[in-house]
Amino acid sequence: MRVRVCAYAIEAGGLAIFMLVACSFGVLLGHPASPVVHALPDPLARRALMGMAMGVTAIALIYSSWGRRSGAHFNPATTLTFWRLGKIDTRDAATYVGAQGLGGLAGVLLAAGVLRAALAHPDVQYTATRPGTSGVAVAFAAELAMTFILMSVVLRVSNDATLARFTGLAAGALVAVYITVEAPLSGMSLNPARSFASAVPAAAWEAFWIYVAAPPLGMLAAAEVYVRRHGLRAVYCAKLHHDAGPCIFRCRWAELSAMTESREAPPVSHPQTAR
Asked: Where residue 265 falls among pLDDT bands split at 50, 70, 90?
């Protein structure tokens, strides 16, 4: 039970940290009084910096001792997808989702207590996710496509004996690229809990349904394609980065780890038989 409670707390704390970083960089790169905004007037350049900051944060969380313990979901859509794949008990999935929502909100509220009016400024607005000028339909399609690609990559890489250790790097790189390129279309959420955390203090509920519906649908669609191509047994665990520590999931990591060891082991040379 202690292992489970620890994993739940990590999911809350991890998204809280992610949102703290997002809010801090949102002010640094978005508030009109920020020296960075004056030095870099090009929005694309500032989005690239934001993407790098959040991509590195995601990578650090995934590979941290915390992330290796809980599986580093930090996203209800990710948890729901692994639940559909049969890797998570219903009780654990529900508690993960609740912890992620509360943790993300706690992170934004903590940032608001420190950054105050700067975070509430109209150009920052608690880093709330909103559809861009292209409209709701484009924002929904963009969130759907991004999450489909992200989960497709996670499943492909994390379940390959040779590539599994690069899962966090691949996920973080996609986050960085998405923020840089896609943010003007949907605000770049990928995560219902992340959008909820900003929407509460910002009262940004217009088109909020996009960020609740599109990420799970995109990830579930990716899981369906993966299972149809590779089979359900080709999903070994729900962790983005695994180690030898405790695991609360329906885990078959040992099988994948054994494959990795067999592939990396040097060939055994046999002495020639004397004639």
From this structure: low
pTM of the model: 0.93
φ, ψ of residue 225 in degrees (nearest 5):
-65, -45
In degrees, to the nearest 5, what angle opens at C-alpha 117 toward C-alphas 114 and 119?
A: 70
Q: What is the pLDDT of residues 35-76, one digit of tens each?
A: 999 999 999 999 999 999 999 999 999 999 999 999 999 999
pLDDT at 93 over 90: yes
Domains belonging to the chain, first-starting first, are 2-256 (1.20.1080.10)
- Sign of the Cα pseudo-torsion (126, 131, 83, 156, in order): negative
Q: Looking at residues 12-37, what average pLDDT do you find?
A: 98
Give the integer Cα–Cα distance in Å for 99 and 196.
13
| 122-171 tens-digit pLDDT | 999 999 999 999 999 999 999 999 999 999 999 999 999 999 999 999 99
Instruction: Determine the Cα–Cα distance for residues 247 and 241; give it in Å rounded to an integer.
Output: 11
